[in-house]
Amino acid sequence: MDISQLIIPVLVAVFAIVGTFLLVRLFDQLHRTMATEQSREMVRQAKIEAENITREAELAAKEQSILLKEKNEAEFRKIHDELHEKERQLDKRQDTLDKQADDLRKQERLVENYQTKLTEKIAEADQKNTDLLKLIEKERRTLHEFAGLNREEAAEKLFAMLDQELQKEIGGTIARHEKQIKERCDMISRNMLLLALQRYAASHTAETTTSSIDIPNDEMKGRLIGREGRNIRTFEKATGTDLLIDDTPGVVIISCFDPIRREAARLALVRLIQDGRIHPARIEEIAAETQKDVNAFIQKTGERAVQEVGLFGLNDRIIELLGRLHFRTSYCQNILRHSIEVAFIAGALAAELGLNEKLAQRCGLLHDIGKATDHEAEGTHPKIGADLLKRYGEPAEVVQAAAGHHDDARLENPYTMLVMTADACSAARPGARRESLELYVKRMEEIESIAGQFPGVEQVYAIQAGREIRVMLVAEQTTDETAAKICRDIAKTLTERVQFPGEIKVTVIRESRFVATAK
User: Fold this and answer.
1) What is the SS3 assignment for 469?
2) What is the mean pLDDT of the chain?
3) CB-based contact 421:404 (threshold 8 Å)
4) Are the CB atoms for 506 and 491 separated by under 8 Å?
5) CA distance 322 to 402
6) Would you tell me how many other CB atoms lie within 10 Å of the CB of residue 348?
7) How far is C-alpha 230 from the chain's CA centre?
8) Contacts of 474 (CB under 8 A, 6+ apart)
9) What is the mean pLDDT of residues 293-301?
10) Which ranges of 392-436 would DSSP assign to H, the alpha helix?
11) How is residue 226 annotated by DSSP?
12) Res. 147 pLDDT band, cuts 50 70 90
């Protein structure tokens, strides 16, 4: 065999081995490249999945945080409401305690007055006993002088002396009894008023000329205004009120001086917001419905007031006017509640005096009925109320009480005086009436300025929210008589020049001090 023939297979085998090795290395390199790309893809997918998981975890955490925040806010609102309720209850208990303390102080003052009067009576009795002993001794000496006279002369001289002594005692006795009668009348009248006021205790609320309505969101403001303002114009025309929409979040305001129209507009706006269909036709429809509801409420309120007082037989028009008084105020005092309070106080006073209690309550309940129709008739509310009550067949006592409860007519029966007294008590009760801060400060300054203009006045202090003023006089420039005149002149001037609810007590103090030093 030729060598060349052997070399060729060997070479072929070598080349085959080398080619196979190279192919294996190439396949291995390709496999490694593919594995690397696959691992990179897996890492990239893992990163994407990790980012997705992280994002989902963040979203879940945010949702959990929002839910936890809402839950905490709900718990906070609940705790806030509970604290507000507890605070209201504490205020109510504090008011009750203050009233009880006032009652105790009044009772203490009454006991002190009784003790003072008892001490004075004991001293007066001791003085009378002393005077009687002196008189007996004097008569004994006189009898000794008469021993030398005959019977007729002794009797004549004795009678003359007795007549002279009695003439001196008559004036003192009359003055003493007049003082006792006056003190007794003052004590009885004061006790009767305290008893009547204690038998009826009422709370008082203040009214305003605006009503605030909460809205769910600020988008509702745009819907209430409507396209080119047609909704708000329709609402104001249908209700007769002004709808104020400003930048205040979550609130719109209804303004009107007529409280009945304001209440009807408030109910209509609340229903419109709840209904959600806000357009001119729906506004007019709901405004008409709420006006009917308000009229029905007025009638029911009047009926409840009559039932509360326990009266019967009143005309339906009178009952309706009583219901309208629920929306009227005087110095922020609700006139219907004021009328009911006057009715109960007048009835209690009538019962103490032995008069007709129900008739007094009827007079008290209807005394301010003219305030419900002031805009419909001319004249003062006492005259309007008297004409109205006379037209609907009320008794003469009721008509007279309405006409004269402000001293506008001559007093013809005791029920008018009872209503005047009850009216003053209701208006002067602490917390019944109030003013704005500006008017209050202005009135206090005016009262102090007027009182300070009188000669001899050194200092003036307005106390008890302007219901009493203390006037300090210069002792060297005044006397007790001029002090009494200054007190009357100040009270008269305040009555003529200042408008105020209730009454103002004027106290004038004149003090003389004498100082000496012992050495």
Assistant:
1) strand
2) 79
3) no
4) yes
5) 14
6) 23
7) 38
8) 456, 457, 458
9) 89
10) 396-404, 414-428
11) -
12) low
